[in-house]
Amino acid sequence: MTSIFKGATRSSNSANSIKSINSLPRALTTIPTNTPRQRRTITTSAFILGTSCALIGGYAMGALRPPHALAMLYPAPAPGPPSPLSDAGQSHTLALEKEIHQLAHVQALKSDSDWYESRPYAAMEQNRVINTLTAGALRSPGRLAIAPLVHARHDDSEAVVTLHVGRGVCGHDGIVHGGLIATLFDESLARTALLSLPGKTGVTATLNISYRVPVKADQFVVIRSTLEKRDGRKAFVKAELSDLSGKAHAQANALFIEPRWSFLADKKNIRKALGTEKA
């Protein structure tokens, strides 16, 4: 009898304990946790902070050392070409003239007996040169400051033309105008083509150019031209323009045709303009 009442008493005490726990304030029985809203707020703040740091860091790095593409699109301002008669202009021209002969590929060609060296228009009378485009109108500091330096094989089937393009021959600032590149190709290809023709003269029939990479101003460039074939009065030639590292920037091919009246042309002046071995 006593054991029954003892069991009942224990059951009653357990029930009273459960009621006591349930009656406690909920704040005392709830374990604090981060709600989804709090987690989203923390995540968003971290994202904004990280993005801001990345943008500021990228801007600072870009300002100190801008990427190649940005440097070409937004070049630093530069002064205009100096006057050819000014001290600055003459000093600039003399420095380039000295530098062109020290270039590694030029030194190699100078020491190779299979090639000869020449300067187009150098032996031509000034009153004939003055109205030409590359040797007259564009021949000044900051443009085409010095005459091209040509190295050609003795049979004139190949030529290497080295020249300097200045800041004053740009389309987009800092990038050499595509029209000037076409002109340089035309003159370089013409030299190789015309010297292969019987009358040593000719006209451009077609000129096709593939522009690969923009050509930055204020640097030396190299144009290598080759005679592909000659068919009667037609000469087919090709060329590539590269920088001093050898990176190709543009390629071209052309057809030159010798006119039927070529026998009337002044062969002596043509040789002087082209810069032949026996000008």
TrEMBL record:
Question: Where does the record place the Thioesterase domain?
Answer: 174-246
Question: Which CDD domains does the record associate with it?
Answer: PaaI_thioesterase
Supply the InterPro entries for this chain.
Answer: HotDog_dom_sf, PTE-AB_protein, Thioestr_dom
List the transmembrane segments.
Answer: none
Q: What is the name attached to this protein's record?
A: Thioesterase domain-containing protein
Instruction: Give the organism the record lists.
Output: Wallemia ichthyophaga
